[in-house]
Design the sequence.
């Protein structure tokens, strides 16, 4: 018995020693776990600003003359001459183009011949009428014969007058074969050229009349109510950043364009020699902000349980929390939110797939402070 106990003593002692070592190591491990700092996930955020009382609308357009005439011939014909080019300045009476007037000149000769024949007819009827009066005075001709001669003379006079009017009309047709400017302006377009046969009234030359200039813009239907005649606006020009003019809305189209579904708005500008026809201009108008929606980056949008959410940062606790939002539409600035956000909210702008409820995060200002502290220690 004594020898058996002697064999067991070392083994029991070894086990006790191993257990003590194991407990010691376990205690050290727990201490290390307790001492290990909690990892904070750095995040990129945006702060929701207060929506302004006004918003700016800006639309691009081109500078045009207030009055632009599309001139065409008052008669049909083949164009034989074009006397102007785009950019030429014209004044009243200047020749713009001409059509072949041969047929109209022949019509003048025919009308002149008809007038000459009508004049002879008047002379003949006049002699017959005078002869009938003499015979009636001598009681040789009856009263009916006198009346017949008088009516024949009146008919001849009417025929002569009609022939004279036809001659004047034919002469006008010849003059219409020459297209002339009737106001001072500049040629902006040529729509027909030499050799082309045009109908009466077909636009051939466009002339922008000297005077007030305007900017024509296209406004969608959701903003057209903000543009009323007389509304003050500001015009900027792409060619010169320093050129800014104050204008007024002069005209608003009463119907939308069937293709673009936009309304044409014309803005009058003050006279400025730096503004040239065709220049690109941007019209800016300040309007009341009736839609206080806020915009967040598209990367801030997330989805949870089939609902659209964003992650809001609690600055005091440095934790994130999911908040449901309602989206209006997608814009150039990101996502337009109608409900769920208010001024001062801090929204996680990127990395939403790594967010969980009550996750500890590190804000950008905290990240910068941590970097500065590390640099100071080094």
Sequence:
């Amino acid at each position: 018995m004594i020898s058996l106990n002697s064999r067991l003593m070392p083994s029991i002692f070894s086990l006790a020693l191993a257990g003590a070592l194991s407990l010691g190591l376990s205690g050290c491990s727990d201490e290390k776990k307790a001492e290990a700092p909690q990892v904070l996930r750095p995040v990129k955020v945006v702060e929701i600003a207060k929506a302004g009382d006004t918003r700016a609308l800006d639309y691009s357009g081109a500078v045009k003359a207030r009055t632009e005439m599309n001139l065409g011939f008052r008669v049909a014909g083949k164009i034989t001459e074009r006397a102007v080019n785009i950019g030429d300045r014209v004044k009243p009476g200047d020749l713009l183009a001409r059509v072949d007037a041969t047929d109209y000149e022949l019509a003048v000769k025919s009308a002149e011949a008809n007038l000459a024949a009508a004049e002879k007819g008047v002379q003949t009827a006049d002699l017959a009428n005078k002869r009938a009066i003499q015979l009636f005075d001598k009681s040789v001709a009856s009263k009916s014969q006198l009346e017949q001669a008088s009516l024949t003379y009146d008919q001849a006079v009417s025929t002569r007058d009609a022939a004279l009017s036809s001659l004047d009309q034919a002469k006008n047709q010849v003059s219409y074969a020459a297209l002339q400017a009737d106001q001072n302006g500049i040629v902006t377009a040529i729509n027909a050229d030499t050799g082309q046969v045009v109908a009466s009234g077909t636009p051939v030359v466009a002339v922008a009349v000297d005077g007030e200039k305007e900017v024509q813009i296209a406004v969608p239907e959701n903003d057209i109510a903000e543009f009323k005649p007389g509304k003050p606006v500001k015009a900027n020009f792409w060619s010169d950043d320093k050129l800014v003019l104050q204008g007024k809305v002069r005209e608003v189209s009463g119907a939308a364009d069937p293709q673009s579904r936009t309304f044409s708005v014309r803005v009058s500008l003050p006279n400025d020699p730096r503004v040239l026809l065709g220049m690109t201009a941007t019209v800016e108008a300040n309007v009341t902000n009736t839609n206080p929606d806020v915009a967040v980056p598209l990367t801030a949008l997330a989805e949870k349980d089939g609902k659209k959410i964003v992650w809001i940062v609690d600055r005091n606790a440095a934790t994130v929390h999911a908040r449901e939002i309602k989206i209006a539409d997608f814009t150039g600035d990101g996502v337009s939110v109608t409900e769920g956000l208010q001024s001062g909210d801090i929204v996680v702008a990127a990395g939403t797939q790594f967010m969980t409820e009550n996750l500890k995060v590190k804000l950008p200002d905290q990240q910068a402070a941590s970097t500065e502290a590390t640099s100071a220690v080094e």
Residues 173 and 351 are 79 Å apart (CA to CA). Residues 1-10, 12-18, 31-36, 368-378 have pLDDT under 50 and may be disordered. The chain is about 30% helix and 35% strand.
